[in-house]
Design brief:
Layout lengths: L2 H14 L2 E6 L6 H12 L3 H14 L1 E7 L1 H13 L3 E4 L1
Antiparallel strand pairs: 1-2, 1-3
Amino acid sequence: MSEQVLEQELTEVSATDKHRVVLFNDHVNSFDYVIDTLVEVCEHDPIQAEQVSHIVHYKGKCDVKSGERRKLIPICNELLRRGLTAELS
């Protein structure tokens, strides 16, 4: 593969992964609820969801999904609908 083709592919990938859903800590939802929600909404496996919930708890926030904005909007909206604090950036 030529350098030009590789560069084009890298540019296309990075252009689609510019956006992310960020989950913020709150003092309302339990760890179990957050973990279950991440598994259902973000399609995390249970271990990944547990790790993310601990990062959110101790760091205040964590990226939970990245990709194309149009695919992330419904994910962010569903997290918000379920009472979590999230934003799309």
